[in-house]
Design goal:
Arc Repressor Mutant, subunit A; 237 residues; 2 domains; Rossmann fold; 8 helices; alpha/beta; 5-stranded parallel β-sheet; 4-stranded antiparallel β-sheet
Length: 237
Amino acid sequence: MTTAGDTYAVLVAEDDMGSRTATRLFLQRFGYRVGEAVDGPGTLREANLGHYDLVLLDLGLPGLDGEEVLSRLRRESPLPVIVLTGRSEERERIRVLDLGADDYLVKPCSLPELEARIRAVLRRGQPAPDTGRIEHSDLLIDRNAHRVQLHGAIVDLTPKEFDLLAFLAGSPDQVFTREELLEHVWGSTQDWQDPATVTEHVRRLRLKIEQDPAKPRWLHTVRGVGYRFVDIGTLDS
């Protein structure tokens, strides 16, 4: 049995006792330390204690809606969040990813798949390698401070948006497929995660760093292949 959870603590935020207990018992088999929360306010209290490495968040929590919990978590910490929900609509998934979720699973899902997703998200959260700063004219990416500045102003990015930008900008002009970006940035594969996740994160990054997202200066689509970072504003988007 894989024991990837030996050093990790997971907060299971779920109001249904049966689902919560089944998830806890399953993850404990893999060595995870598991805490529980039954409502939105309790989830925020537990998450802010700093004892956890990841939150499994049900959107239908009482007391405070799961989307509001996610928004507050994203404002307060880089703690990874996997959303578990019965809501399968694409617009719901996109909205939750926009709020900063690291992954999105529709219930019911298999517990082995859930554990694999947890491992993948925790791998993504490993510190970015290396030595510090990436500079491209007026764009500065500081890996050590986990900060991006554009024209001297701080750009507010989610942890995964930062990881994606830092990875692409660290290899300028190199084209990466969505599958390669899933592997290198998310620590995942298309067997476990929809490559559309990459497309959505690129879209969100463009909205935040491009003067004209429809004609990007930095993040370019190479049609039929993938994406690359390049400081040239003349290529097709």
